[in-house]
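Slack export, channel: ligand-projects

TW: morning all. Re-posting the request from yesterday since it got buried. We need the structure predicted with the small molecule present, not the apo form. The ligand is pyridoxal-5'-phosphate; the SMILES is in the block with the sequence. No rush, but it would help planning for next week.
GE: picking it up
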Amino acid sequence: MNLQYNFSGGPGALPLPVLMQAQQAILEVPEVGLSVLGISHRSDWFREVMDEAEANIRHLLKVPQNYHVLFLQGGSTLQFAMLAMNFGGMGESPPSYVSSGYWSRKSMSDSGVGSGMRIVWDGESSGFRRMPKAAELDIDSRTSYLHYVSNETVEGLQVTDGLFAGDVPVFCDMSSDFMSRPVDISRYAMIYAHAQKNLGPAGVTIAILREDLVERAQIGLANILDYRTHIAARSIYNTPPVFSIYIVLLVTRWMRETFGDLEGLDAVNRRKASLLYDVLDAEPEFYSAHAERESRSVMNVAFKCQTPELTAQFLQEARDAGLHGLEGHRSIGGVRASLYNALTEHEASVLASFMKIFSKRYAEAREFSLADA
Ligand SMILES: Cc1ncc(COP(=O)(O)O)c(C=O)c1O
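GE: finished. pasting the full token output, ligand included:
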């Protein structure tokens, strides 16, 4: 049994009971008698898998009836472009974007919207250390839509209550905090998230889209890039990632059985994050958190040690201790502990203890060598 702890930024850890069922399903799905890797996407069994996965998502997120739930491919990166193609021309003025970190910048550059795009808030000058409040957004009410990223995976920043502006349709990339907490879906035009953080392996992306918007989407797009195609085909227009969707079903079942609802899961996730932020707060001389307090992410805790050498040492010793995936994103370095749904409270507490022991040992050694000098 693998006893390594996985703090990877994504693809992230999956629950052990799900991995065990997946292992069995690779050989044989008990109710079918075939490997999950060789079952037709047109089979009755797979239709049931999709229906139950959708029902679980609807139940846990309390998705209103007037929203479609789609299983798409191409990752969240395809959604950056696809939503802009479909909805970029909806308003009298161009789409609006919040620029709050690495992934929101990618959502802008990959949208294809080009120079007409309006940036309604930009965190670059403050080093992408916080998320804006809705009141800070400089929005033109005629804009086609407002796009933001709810959780900046790289910098470890999270929006608390959502960003809304009157009747402007809001599109949100929730890739790294999807289904980790309750969300009022009715306030959004569309939310989307790839599976590989909180919901399953890479390969499938969930989009939850309000029905009436579809009528306002661009006409004449290639079928595969048109949301209407996927709605009409109930997410089986071409061959979907059967295995990934099957795992989403197992993970959502696990979520319902283990936590009951997203309120319960959110409480656990907050406790996990507090374990780490408490250590960072208790030792400000040794550790520095990237995010300002009000924007701290519950999913990704990004920080550095006192010096780059100590950060490298921290990562090496953590790996040796069986704590994996803690390297910060290549764009900002440092340490990033990702605490997605499958990461247990116990695992977070082991990392918190490791952080305390590490800082104590190296702070003392440093004091000693300074006194010695
Ligand atoms: C918030 C966010 N959005 C988008 C992406 C890109 O997702 P994908 O690789 O599925 O295209 C990532 C990747 O980690 C992410 O964290």
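GE: first-pass observations. The CA atoms of residues 165 and 216 lie 19 Å apart. The chain has a mean pLDDT of 96.
TW: perfect, thank you
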